Amino acid sequence: MRLGIGVFFALLSLSAGAEGVSSPDGSIRFELSFAQTEDPSETYPVYTVTFDDEEIIRPSRLGLRADDRDDFSTGLSRVTVARKTSDTTWEQPWGERRFVRDHNNQAIYTLRFDAFEMAVHVRVFDDGLAFRYAIPEQDGLDIRTVDELTQFVVNRSGTAFWQTGDGHEGYEHLYQATDIDDVTTAHTPITLRLDTGTHLSFHEAALIDYPAYRLIAQGDGRFDVDLRPWSDGTKARVSLPFLSPWRTIQLARSATGLLDSDLILNLNEPNVLGDVSWVEPGKYAGIWWEIHRGLGTWSTGPRHAATTAAAKAKIDFAAEYGFDGVLAEGWNIGWDGDWVGEPIQDLTRSVRGFDLPAVARYARDSGVRLVGHQETGGHVTHYEKQMDAAFDLLERHGVRQVKTGYVGRTGSLKRVDDNGVTHFEHKDGQFAVRHHMTNILKAAERRISINTHEPVKDTGLRRTYPNWLSREGSRGQEFNVWGDPGNPPEHEVMLAYTRLLSGPMDFTPGVFDLDFEISGKPRRVQTTLAKQLALYVTIYSPIQMVPDMRENYERYRDAFQFIVDVPTDWEESVALAGEVGDFVAFARKERGGDDWYLGAITDEQARDLSLPLGFLDDGQSYRATIYSDGPDAHWETSPYEYVIRQSTVNNKNTLELKLAPGGGAAIRFEPEE
After folding, report:
1. Which helix (H) or strand (E) holds 497?
2. For every residue of 584-599, which 3-state class applies, written as one string?
3. Which residue, of 102, 160, 344, 604, is most buried by count of CB atoms within 10 Å of its CB?
4. 552 Cβ neighbours under 8 A, 6+ residues apart
């Protein structure tokens, strides 16, 4: 039956010993119970979550609606429960840390609704929990579409840190901090800080063949899961057996507790690609920032930026400073005219003036790889028709990384069906999810890694497909050029506690020219130069761009040394301090070495930080090279004022840092002999 306004909660316990599952440390508990409709014979499943004996999630609805008819929620007749404990450690081929512990308690609740069965899989970790739906094959059941009835009902007031899920720009909106009750429609991750001090974040994991979801606030702390529909209004197209993505709740006693969570990764399947030694983290320069700055163009003409000579100059720059790759945007035919959404991008042919074989060969001879670029303009069907040939071309020229792009509004992806009819799909709908999986697998066949821009949100699939190196999925550095407004000083701090909880982001830090004009209009990157350095540590990505022009880096050559030195692959990462949207400090140890790096950034407020160095190795002294804001630094009035100093420290010391408004600090710790 369908539930109306008259639904009320009357919790009915499962049989003794089968009512819930707790985290290994006992701090988090998930309980599944049943509520009655106005008809006492009709019950439906609900769940609650407690953390440190505090009810965090009040009774919240579970269930699916199939084919807009069958309700896998009411008419419950039987429940069985299977339990399991898992405690393993697995190794990332690249990542924030090399070894990840996966310790959880599990329960599988098999629920029989009238004639059919559905299971709810639950895993509870010390850093949060997750649940997903499973419908097995069964006689008499043929399901083609599903929608969700899932809810999150928060039991306490507090502050929400979120971005709108209704905007035309997908995930590229500024985050805002409001009362929980003032949220409307939000993308995930959405982070909450309850008045009791508990921090939590809602998201999802293992999104493979299903639409992404938004949360729609219904008032009184209730959020309903809303699946992004196809253009015909269908939510999820499925077949049996069916397994949904995980619905995740990360929990922590502090803001930094969220940052140390591996829950999203642990909910994904292990690597299915086998040997992935060909997946190479690193830093890359590119023909990119100067185009955004208006100093060149993507389109052909007298100011075309992607020329053979310009690419070779970038390669020389990368080789001189030890960077791994060079990106050239605008290299292919298709950038002239109104190309967004139009089938004119030809990813198999270079424009006149860009000699792809010569550039790729010059890069290889210089010890640098050319990074490929494939912009679709949002015309996905046109891209898929040439995807194999485009990847084959790049593979022949030794390209091992490709940046893809899907420029256009969120509901503008073009799908042309077998009858030649054009449909416009959401960038986070099931069509887009399927397309990205095709893209990742075809790239893997050629040993190519992907950096997706304008993507569907990250849900930890880099564990299963390690060639999915990074993605955008939020407002990056380019919004400081053409965003109105640009990214405010709190933006990069906010990212740490929201977008970056889902996975790596290709933010493109490291701009040194912070004050410029675009078409006669002043623009200001709202950070200090020292903060741009710190972003290489605080914003994690296994590939980091070095976006600015050579002359701007060489103007501040001593500060540029940090970008030259900082790695992108880590043995361990530790969140040292922070509050959501205010400030954050990370320490990371380089993979395959002994150096540690630290990054600290703040919002528009100046801050004095005292950071204990207990993360450093015992019995070892280090030379700390500290790149920090100068005494009068300020993002608006004096962004270029910085100080570089050295000090000898060990893990018994505390580092005192002064961060300017919109500022930051970056430190390299080198072991002393």
Report:
1. helix 491-497
2. EEEEEEECCCCCEEEE
3. 160
4. 511, 512, 513
Same domain, 380 and 434: yes
pLDDT reported for residue 40: 66
| pLDDT of 331 over the 90 cut | yes
Query: Tens digit of pLDDT for each residue in 43-73?
Result: 889 999 999 999 999 999 999 999 977 788 8
Last residue within a domain, chosen from 266, 284, 302: 266
Would you say 634 and 670 are in contact if contact means Cβ atoms under 8 Å apart?
no
Where a domain ends, among 427, 447, 473? 473
Using pLDDT thresholds of 50, 70 and 90, give the confidence band for residue 505. very high
Per DSSP, the three-state class of 1 is coil
Are 229 and 147 in contact, with CB atoms under 8 Å apart? no
Residue 286, both tokens: 């590119």
For residue 673, the domain's CATH number is: 3.20.20.70
pLDDT surpassing 50 at residue 4: no
Number of domains in the chain: 3
Q: What is the mean pLDDT of residues 569-575?
A: 98
Q: Are 489 and 250 in contact (CB under 8 A)?
A: no
Q: How many Å apart are CA 365 and CA 360, to the nearest integer?
A: 9
Q: Which of helix, strand or coil describes residue 388?
A: helix
Pseudo-torsion of CA 83, 89, 93, 94, nearest 10°?
A: 100
- Nearest alpha-carbon partner for 122 in 18, 30, 25, 210: 30
**What per-residue confidence (pLDDT) applies to 43?**
84
Token pair 């006693």 is found at 253
575-594 tens-digit pLDDT? 999 999 999 999 999 999 99
> Using CB atoms within 10 A of its CB, is residue 12 exposed (0-12), middle (13-18) or buried (19+)?
exposed
The Cα–Cα gap between 515 and 77 comes to 67
CB 399 within 8 A of CB 372: yes
Per the domain annotation, does 548 fall within a domain?
A: no
DSSP state letter for 339: -
CA distance readout (Å), 362 to 119, 286, 325, 392: 56, 15, 12, 19
Any domain includes 589: yes
633 closest CA partner among 547, 528, 557: 528
Question: 261: which residues sit within 8 A by CB, 6+ positions away?
Answer: 127, 128, 250, 252, 501
**Contact indicator for 607, 541 with CB cutoff of 8 Å:** no
In 3D, which of 107, 124, 130, 116 has the Cα closest to residue 77?
116
The pLDDT score that the predictor gives to residue 485 is 83
pLDDT at 71: 81
Residue 630: domain span:
491-536+554-673
Question: Among 4-8, 17-21, 127-131, 567-571, whose mean pLDDT is lowest?
Answer: 4-8
Stated pTM of the model: 0.96
Greater model confidence, 612 or 522: 612
